[in-house]
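Service request form, structural biology core

Requester: graduate student, group of Dr. S.
Request type: structure prediction, single chain
Budget code: on file
Notes: please return the result as structure tokens.

Sequence provided:
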Amino acid sequence: MKNKYQDISLKATKQGFIAEVNNNYLSINELLYFAIRAYQQYGSLVIAIKENDRIKNHIPENKIDEFEPIIKAKIKELYFLKDHKDYIHFKIKLIDKSVIKFFSKYLKALFNTNVFFGLLMFSIVINGMYFFSNNIKPTELTNYQSIIYSMIVFLSLMFHEFGHCIAVDNRTSKVKYIGFGLYNRVLPVLFADVSHIWQYEKTDRFIVNLGGVFIQLLINVLLIVLLQFDVANELIEQVFLMNLYIIAYSLIPFLRNDGYWVLSDLIGVNNLHDKSKGYLLKLLFNNEKFNLSILVYSILNFAFNILILYWIVFALSTVYGKYSIDHNQVFEFKNIAKSLLDLIIVTISLMIIHSKFSEYKSTISKIWLKRSVKIAIKKD
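Core staff response, request fulfilled:
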């Protein structure tokens, strides 16, 4: 008879063990992996140990009473994974998998391993040579050009997400959808649901995670070809430049972007963002196991957040300075659009500041609570 633990899908990979519940994925340790398998097969750790010698190697028979409550608590956490781990909120599905599958038929051959890495290196070289040899800089466009530019940039962002999905179709055939949501409840983002890629090998994950950047680099190669025919050079150059900006943003490893997942794979640390929170404090006060990669990432991540907060404060002071000189300009018809944009910038900025301080407060509280518990146990 099926028991409740059958809802958990398990997979062992070269990088570790993966558990999936309700389309959410988490890296788990070896002990928890074999414990869940024991419950799935036998419904009980006691019976599992009697029936399976291999399980006995991972769960000591004389410590079942000690292990079982901890293991069951960890399993329970898996069922609430979506509430605790999802960082994109208010999701709306924009493009269904049937549409993605249609385009994937013609493009997924680009994501075969040898083809992908060959074209990736080629497009990086071509993009770099064109950018540095032509010294492209941002320029002001006409109103008409700005409208066309905005539409092309939106399409570029959509192609980026298609890149992830087509890569998934090539590597796993399990395409989901492209959607819209708010990153950390603040920043509007397009996203592709590729969470299940964690079940697969590192090469597959690498290709999927860089699929969006790959497509944008190829688009830029096509734009370079168009530029050779003197077709709307100014507009196309600005689209080319914006594509590079989007690629650079995607590769920032301190946001849960493409670069973050690639870095996590390269250094072999799952849940890197969570493990790095307050890592220096954890080393000092909680006797955390030392890991140089996590320490370096934690320090750089903190510096990045300070830089972002500095930029936000600078932006807010600029907006304040503008309207403190002449607050009546807010109500002038010609300035309404700019005033609304400034209001949006202020609102998002304040939300980011609140989010960051709440995150730091929560991290410090957890570290201090863990330290207090350890002290209390030692006293007892």
